[in-house]
Amino acid sequence: MPPKPPKPEPNDADIRSLTFEQAVEQLESIIDRIESGEIGLEDSLKQYERGTRLRDHCREILARTEQRVTELTPQKPDDAAP
Questions:
Q1: Of 10, 18, 48, 71, which cross-links 23 as Cys (Cβ 3.0–4.6 Å)?
Q2: CB atoms < 10 A from the CB of 15, how many?
Q3: Radius of gyration of the CA atoms of the chain, in A
Q4: Is the sign of the CA dihedral 17, 70, 27, 20 positive or negative?
């Protein structure tokens, strides 16, 4: 029997539903709270973990967007690969 895929974190589904702008806004908020010291150590760690998932989500969106732009950008004959 193949190994089971890792169980998604409770907040992964809501992160995947965020737009790029929403994810960046949440990430900035997490950074502000951690840097200000307004949350305790344990909550800081939980927020840091969420922040890494938000960062990964943003990177995935950017990669898909970059790929789409590349697909939509016409290549000039002199830009084409040999």
A1: 18
A2: 18
A3: 18
A4: negative
